[in-house]
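Help needed: design a sequence for this.
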């Protein structure tokens, strides 16, 4: 861009400036020629008139006539000479000026014009014409100093070259700065692209302007943000899958070890009748444990694949029915159930919502080992309903709040395993909530215990 700008400016400004100076000089020289020729024509015309009136007029009289003409306009002449082939008839008293007939002497009745250099830097405009007399051919030659015109042209050329040089420097600096400003975002874009290609996903382009390059930079940053989020989601998904596989293997290891161990004891035939019954009981309980694990995993897979049909159901009725069924059982554990349900219907899948409420209630009662209060609150929304389940248990550790819905995640692994949990209940809850286009939030209550808020936005009729 810089070189092209300099080349273009040099051609346009150089050619334009040179043509302008040349045209101005030619105009000035032509005006000077016109003025000089007018003065010369007066003298030459007078010489022709005198010759026509008296062809035999002596040379002294002609010289006097020429002297009178010269004195009328003496400041205009640098040379005023009347001569014949053999001698000088009249010459004004001026500093000597060499006369060279560059194109030969003029013919009678003709006038020659030329410009010559005196060798010392002076420029002179010559006019020379011939008049035929009866006794000889007379030559009237004049010269006018036009050095000022050539000096002015040279001064203009020097000034032009200085301005041209300054212009080239300024134009070069400006075009280089502009090109750098325009291409710098492209360089940043290239560097950011290389960084992202090498795995540095946080690299971004600094947006410097609001033009097309700035738009490309913003679009690139938006693309990089989306890519970084996508890669982060993939990374988290891989981590969740790895944790899932690790947890699944761990959950399978304990019952399988028990099954194999008790089976070996039974096969050995060394157990008493009572010990065999006890071993069979352990085999039964561990088998049920594996059955429960497989059933919950199957539920997770089914929820991810099936399309669920909603029905117009009262969420408050579901909660009250659950509280009625669990009331006697939880009362034996010193847990009191409260319900605050707004009346109305919304679109739900009742079996899935029932499973959701069962899992949330089961988690709440596990957190209240010494008894407490379990409260349900149902509120209808414009596009669904909101269900809150609050307890007065031990609460949720802050570091566990973001992982509660991960498969096989348990806040207290030893206690949950002893209570028969796998850490899959809240994963099922999350899937059920997503099917209903809602969300689930976990938080600790200021008064103690935890609160789970579920929004189910399947719509209303």
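Sure. Designed sequence:
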């Amino acid at each position: 861009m810089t070189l092209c700008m300099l080349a273009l400016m040099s051609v346009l400004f150089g050619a334009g400036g040179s043509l302008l100076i040349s045209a101005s000089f030619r105009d000035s020289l032509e005006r000077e020629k016109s003025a000089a020729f007018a003065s010369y024509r007066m003298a030459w015309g007078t010489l022709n008139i005198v010759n026509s009136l008296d062809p035999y007029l002596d040379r002294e009289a002609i010289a006097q006539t020429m002297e009178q003409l010269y004195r009328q306009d003496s400041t205009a002449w640098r040379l005023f000479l009347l001569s014949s082939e053999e001698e000088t008839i009249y010459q004004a008293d001026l500093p000597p000026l060499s006369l060279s007939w560059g194109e030969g002497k003029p013919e009678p009745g003709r006038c020659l014009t030329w410009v010559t250099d005196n060798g010392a830097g002076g420029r002179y405009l010559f006019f020379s014409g011939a008049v035929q007399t009866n006794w000889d051919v007379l030559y009237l030659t004049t010269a006018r100093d036009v050095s000022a015109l050539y000096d002015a042209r040279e001064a203009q050329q020097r000034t032009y070259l200085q301005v041209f040089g300054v212009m080239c420097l300024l134009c070069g600096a400006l075009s280089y700065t502009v090109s750098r400003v325009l291409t710098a975002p492209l360089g940043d874009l290239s560097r950011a692209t290389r960084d992202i290609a090498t795995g540095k996903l946080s690299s971004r382009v600094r947006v410097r302007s609001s033009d097309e390059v700035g738009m490309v930079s913003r679009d690139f940053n938006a693309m990089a943000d989306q890519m970084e989020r996508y890669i982060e989601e993939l990374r988290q998904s891989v981590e969740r899958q790895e944790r899932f596989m690790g947890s699944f293997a761990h959950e399978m290891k304990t019952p399988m070890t028990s099954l194999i161990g008790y089976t070996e004891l039974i096969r050995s035939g060394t157990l008493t009748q009572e010990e065999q019954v006890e071993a069979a009981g352990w085999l039964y309980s561990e088998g049920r444990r594996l059955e429960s694990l497989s059933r919950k995993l199957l539920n997770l897979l089914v929820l991810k694949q099936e399309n669920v049909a909603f029905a117009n159901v009262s969420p408050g009725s579901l909660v009250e029915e659950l509280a009625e069924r669990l009331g006697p059982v939880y009362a034996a554990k010193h847990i009191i159930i409260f319900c605050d349900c707004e009346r109305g219907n919304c679109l739900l899948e009742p079996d899935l919502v029932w499973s959701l409420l069962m899992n949330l209630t089961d988690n709440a009662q596990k957190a209240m080992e010494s008894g407490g209060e379990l409260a349900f609150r149902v509120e209808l929304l414009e596009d669904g309903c909101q269900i809150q389940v609050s307890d007065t248990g031990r609460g949720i550790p802050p570091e566990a709040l973001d992982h509660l819905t991960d498969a096989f995640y348990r806040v207290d692994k030893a206690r949950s395993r002893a209570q028969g949990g796998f850490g899959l209940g809240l994963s099922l809850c999350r899937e059920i909530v997503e099917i209903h286009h809602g969300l689930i939030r976990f938080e600790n209550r200021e008064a103690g215990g935890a609160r789970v808020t579920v929004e189910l936005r399947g719509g209303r009729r």
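The two ends are 67 Å apart (CA to CA).
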